[in-house]
Design a protein that fits this description.
Distance between the termini: 14 Å
Largest sheet: none
Number of helices: 14
Helix content: 55-70%
Strand content: under 5%
Shape: globular
Radius of gyration: 20 Å
């Protein structure tokens, strides 16, 4: 499978956007959910499911690839957890606030629980969910793709949609109360809600194997509708034309459960982005963000300790520092990507050759 460099670039752009959101400050306040009721995380989940499935189904043993990939993600989780744990357990003695879910008094149970993925302190909840989703895809997708290739996309999407609906009605909380002790944290992302985006990506990859997914009259109508909805959600989110934006606590745009209006807002934006890539392949394909996107797992994992050092500091920094430091921290993302590229012998974007035309249909 040829690498679609535009996807790498978008993933890198989302990564930089998410990092700024994590570090907070005036810049984050101007970027957070400004394009609609969604964040960079939604894009990551969708792209991850799509790319992982495309890669896996071109391997001799897709199930083994999903298992191997889940192990890789788990190892990066451990690599992020180690410095985060050292900082979170040591720095409170110097005035830093404790990290929720990883506190000195309970570290003997919380640290092993976090390493085993069942306990998820703040900011350490995304990669454990990825591990579970990759394992689930490995169990479900290869068999369906082999036995019922025409029905596989609908089957995957149907099961995922039912799980999402169950999550909207509180099934995750019930499972947590029945299966987990009170001290264990499940993190921000409801697995029954957020799995929907990952498996929509899986379904799209399965459809892609059957032929054209975008193009034709139906697609053009979908793009027009998505553009109208994207503009409407943008205006609603930013309070334009007298529209009152929904609060983050609303069940309709719930980030934790991935509420229905959040799904609609992100879906509209995603369709518009796909059309932009299809029509103008270079419009969103930029060398710096492409480079970040090619090393997104390493970059995401190793920016997490900086979040604790910055966000849980004893005293707030001056306004100017809240602007300049997050910008400097963006440079750290590129340092990590460069180190990872050298360590894995992956060529930097500047030496990656000509940009290939994105073929997402």
């Amino acid at each position: 499978m040829k690498r679609v460099t535009a996807i790498d670039s978008i993933r890198g752009l989302l990564l930089a956007w998410m990092a700024i959101d994590h570090w907070g400050g005036p810049i984050s306040a101007q970027l957070y959910q400004r394009l609609g009721f969604w964040t960079a995380a939604e894009g990551f989940f969708l792209i991850s499911g799509y790319v992982a499935t495309q890669v896996a189904l071109e391997k001799p043993d897709p199930r083994a690839w999903f298992l191997q990939r889940s192990c890789v993600v788990w190892k990066w989780h451990l690599l992020a957890l180690a410095p985060m744990a050292v900082l979170a357990l040591a720095l409170p003695a110097f005035g830093w606030r404790p990290l929720p879910g990883l506190e000195a008094a309970q570290w003997l149970r919380e640290l092993p629980g976090a390493a085993a993925l069942v306990h998820q302190p703040d900011y350490l909840d995304v990669l454990p969910l990825y591990v579970v989703l990759l394992l689930g895809a490995g169990l479900l997708v290869p068999g369906l793709a082999l036995r019922w290739p025409r029905r596989a996309p609908a089957c995957v999407f149907g099961v995922s949609l039912m799980l999402w609906l169950a999550g909207q009605f509180g099934a995750t909380g019930l499972m947590r109360a029945l299966l987990l002790p009170g001290w264990m944290r499940m993190g921000l992302f409801d697995p029954l809600g957020w799995q929907l985006l990952f498996f929509v990506g899986v379904s799209l990859a399965l459809l892609r194997r059957q032929g054209e997914v975008i193009g034709g009259g139906i697609w053009r109508g979908t793009v027009r509708l998505a553009a109208v909805l994207a503009v409407a959600f943008f205006c609603w989110r930013n309070g334009l034309f007298g529209l009152e934006p929904l609060t983050d606590e609303s069940v309709w745009i719930s980030r934790a459960r991935l509420g229905p209006l959040r799904v609609m807002s992100f879906a509209a934006a995603a369709v518009v982005v796909v059309e932009i890539i299809r029509r103008w392949p270079r419009a969103l394909d930029w060398a710096p963000t492409r480079f970040l996107g090619q090393h997104s797992l390493a970059v995401f994992s190793l920016h997490l300790p900086l979040i604790y050092v910055w966000h849980f500091r004893p005293q707030p920094y001056p306004w100017l520092a809240q602007v300049l430091v997050p910008l400097l921290m963006l440079g750290w993302l590129f340092v990590v990507a460069w180190i990872h590229a050298r360590a894995t012998s992956v060529p930097a974007a500047a030496h990656a050759g000509p940009v290939r035309r994105a073929h997402l249909s």
